[in-house]
Fold:
Amino acid sequence: MAGLSHGIPTVTTQGFLSEPIWAQTGCVALAPAADASAFLQATESLLGDPAARARLGDRAREVYADHFTLERTVEVLLKT
Structure:
């Protein structure tokens, strides 16, 4: 979460237990969990594309603000 809040472009894996939010929001670059080659390719692609890193970082900040801030967490908890 800290990476999202600071707008750090992040590559991570996606498996059958991954939360849908990661694929739906586009706030992280995803690679299949068992595919090291795809992970490496996604990482190298981001390293070579400053504009893509900036877009991913901006989106990460937005998703963090919309879903994970303390204020948002309290809001959701109070509704339950």
